């Protein structure tokens, strides 16, 4: 369970990014978070990752209280989260397999486990024949699928996808969304931050709309609310 209780965030320059946000996302939910640029979506993500601290209120993810979390516990929290960025953030000099394996090396996984899981997750995202390809040899959609496999390989509880379809064509956008739905069906909580109104309306999942640092709409199975 992810819980925001009366959360606010004011940056040092005085910018109020979030105001009194209350939000609950249950384990295993699939949620879209939408809103115009500056609505507070990025700040919400940064708070979840402990890249920023809330100015007020309380945030919990499962057993973790992010509001009072000491810095030495942040890596443990982040192991429960899988992050997919719109710009992929793959290491250019590593192959697809090596990019995925890198996430496991960071947490000290054994070599045998790494080999097995990397192969399994390449297969899951449909890239079992691309393991030896470097990012420059892959299409945008293939790079995003490698990034998705990397986010999943350490078996996180929550997947946060920040504009995962922004840099791919419409056909590949559907493929990536179908993969995220498949992951959700495996019991993972999936949060998709997006501007893609067509995808949001098509999939009819829970839609949280933000505006000026507040949640202005929260609809289950509803359409995008351009508040």
Provide a descriptive summary of the structure in words:
- With 227 residues, the chain is an alpha/beta fold.
- It is built from 7 helices and 10 strands.
- The chain has helices at residues 41-48, 74-78, 96-106, 111-124, 140-152, 170-185, 197-203; strands at 2-10, 16-25, 30-34, 56-61, 64-65, 81-84, 158-162, 189-193, 206-211, 214-219.
- Strands 6-7-8-3-9-10 form a 6-stranded mixed sheet. Strands 2-1-4-5 form a 4-stranded antiparallel sheet, with helices on one face.
- The longest helix has 16 residues, at 170-185.
- The chain is globular and about 50 Å long.
- The protein starts with a strand and ends in an 8-residue tail after the last strand.
Give a quick summary of the entry.
The protein has seven helices and ten strands.
- Oligomeric status: single chain
Compute the number of helices: 7
Percentage of helical residues?
25-40%
Tell me the β content.
Answer: 25-35%
The gyration radius over C-alpha positions equals 18 Å
Q: Order of helices and strands, N to C?
A: EEEHEEHEHHHEHEHEE
